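Per reviewer request, we include the raw input and output of the structure prediction for the construct analysed in the revised manuscript.
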Amino acid sequence: MKLHLRLVLVFLGAFALLDSVRCQTDSIPEPNTLEKLAQRTLIGGGFGLQFGSVTLLHVAPGIAYKLNERIYLGGSFTYQYLNWAGTVYESHMYGTRIFPIVDVWKGVFATAEYEWLNYPVSPDIGLPFRKNNHAFFLGGGYLQRINKRGGFVQFSLLYNLLFSRLNQGQSPYDSPITYRMSVFF
């Protein structure tokens, strides 16, 4: 009789314990698809400002999606305003870029980036007109994580595989090498 009573008490205790564990897990709802997407999406980009003989305003808002702990896919829009002091020349440049970021080892990352820019060609060569520039950058750098969601500050050094010295003066880049700093939260 005592054995049966003990077995019944053990089973009741086990069911009560399982029920309390189940109630605790039920109280935390599983995030829906939109919430999961929001948890993996990072907002940020780059910004630059310069005053002096050249006035520069650079704004590049961006978005990145965290596929997993090591791989991000992102894109951004770019707008630049340039004005040279003592001249009447000013320019407005705009475009977009897409990129993956692969964290290779402890913050050291590799990336490839396609960029399209539309910019004015210097008016001193004749009639002012706008031109498109396509760039394909390969490179890498370092990213420092800044929050638990995967946000980061990124420092990158890139090489433009489509750069041509023949287009110098008619390209927004004077060199095939460029560097960037971006922040994503």
